[in-house]
Design goal:
Length: about 270
């Protein structure tokens, strides 16, 4: 009952390996990773606990790099290819802890056989907080579930901002927003003479205590791109705990990065380096 053993040992989504165990694991599976790095479990907790090795023979892990500080454009699941997040590092015997920021790239994933993992336990001195685990899970899901927006909608943005100048301005102001969502009416391919109506929703974390005017200004910069593409835009800024399920079901997460890669790179970002 190998899945049950892994569950009892404490393995779940978001747990981390000790530095020594991370190196040992990578050696065992033949993965060459430039040091220093941390190794994080990505598999969903129920999949880890599944005892059927024919269905779930491996646990998926990601290698992450320590960084000095996060870039707001890569936090809160804003970029489907790159995530900046954090974990808490406890100092053994010192009764103290500190936040450690990390960068995770979508292609730096590896598969650890469950039979191998059962000989290891998580590093209890390294832990991701609940919000960061949930954010990590959302980021993983976005690789496959992020919406495909109408081609005409995307093309109009590219035509209005061919060199990405407006999008570059957004990157400088975007750190305060946790997410960007759009409701596109109609959600269809339009003729040249027809106009999109766009409801633009920007979010900040529920515990946000920063400058809401600055967040509103960042949202306005997003709206300016859509207006430059001759779209009729309304905008709204909300804290994450102010959003109802009915509201969010109407909206789709918006990744400007997808437009950049689609226009500039014939291969995915992880292939083009």
């Amino acid at each position: 009952m190998i899945g049950s053993v892994l569950e009892q040992n404490g393995w779940q989504q978001g747990t981390l390996f000790s530095d020594a165990d991370a190196i040992r694991i990578c050696t065992e599976i033949g993965a060459t990773i430039k040091q220093p790095f941390v190794l994080i479990v990505a598999s969903q907790s129920c999949d880890i606990a599944n005892n059927n090795l024919e269905l779930d023979p491996h646990v998926e892990v990601y290698a992450a790099r320590l960084i000095d500080k996060p870039n707001g454009n890569y936090q809160h699941n804003k970029n489907a290819r790159l995530l900046h997040t954090k974990f808490i590092q406890r100092q053994p015997g010192a009764g103290m802890s500190s936040e450690k920021y990390i960068e995770i790239k979508a292609f730096e994933k590896h598969f650890v056989p469950k039979a191998l993992l059962q000989g290891f336990v998580p590093d209890t001195d390294k832990q991701m907080e609940e919000y960061d685990v949930r954010n990590f899970a959302d980021w993983l899901a976005a690789r496959y579930s992020r919406p495909a927006l109408p081609t005409t909608f995307n093309n109009r943005i590219d035509a209005a901002d061919p060199r990405g100048a407006l999008r570059d301005k957004i990157k400088k102001a975007n750190s305060v927003l946790s997410g960007m969502y759009v409701e596109i009416l109609p959600f269809a391919e339009l003729k040249d003479t027809e106009q999109y109506q766009v409801n633009l929703l920007g979010t900040v974390p529920a515990d946000f205590d920063g400058d809401l005017a600055k967040a509103e200004a960042a949202l306005t910069k997003h709206a300016e791109i859509l207006r430059a593409a001759n779209m009729n835009v309304t905008q709204r800024l909300l804290k994450e705990d102010e959003i109802s399920l009915a509201l969010i079901r109407r909206f789709k997460r918006f990744y400007y990065d997808d437009l950049s890669y689609r226009a500039e790179a014939p291969l995915p970002a992880e292939v083009t380096g």
